[in-house]
Description:
This protein is 40% helix and 22% strand. By secondary structure, it is of the alpha/beta class. Strand 8 (140-143) and strand 9 form a beta hairpin. Helix 2 (33-42) runs parallel beside helix 3, helix 4 packs across helix 7 (171-179) and helix 6 packs across helix 8 (189-201). Mean pLDDT is 85; it is low at 120-124.
Amino acid sequence: MRILVVEDERGMAELLRRGLEEEHHSVCVAMDGLTGLDEAEGGEFDAIVLDVMLPKMDGFEIVRRLRAGKNQTPILMLTARDAVADIARGLDAGVDDYLTKPFSFVELLARLRAVTRRGGSPVALRLEAGELALDPQSRVVTRAGSEVRLTVTEFKLLELLMRRAGRVVPREVIVEAVWGTADDIGENTLDVFISMLRSKVEKGAENKVIHTIRGVGYMIRERG
Length: 224
């Protein structure tokens, strides 16, 4: 794969470059946000590894500009551990996955393989989990071919979960991504919306797709 690494910490950038090249990937490194954006817009990459805190332009603005320009190269965002607000903001902007520092290189490679399975595309891709499908571009949701009508908030919630299919999304991350702040919503608001979403996407279905991970959050899983 051809991978763009945007990281201003020289030690980390070199570690990523060397490790990825040892895995036979071609690596381009940018040390600031503006250079990273120029490289991403002007080159053909299979994935971008993007730090949040960068000089000249932060990672969020890079993601916003790339997605606004219809660049759908998979992006793996690097952020500080437990930076829930960063994670939520990144996901909302269009990041495909995130990894908190410090991280293991084995996990980084696994996340890169996961986000690049879909490849780059100039248009938003259809998300699927069993019989459930969501088209981010047309904003149409179907279950077994039948359209499921959702409110704007329900759609945003489902899209977030489906982009993280197979992984638990913490409650705090969901709230930040969907509502922006926990201060403006009731304690049980998320649970109420999950209940309404389930009533629509799981109505008459044999298998549940939205699962509660007690004390942590929710996840989309096809079976179980």
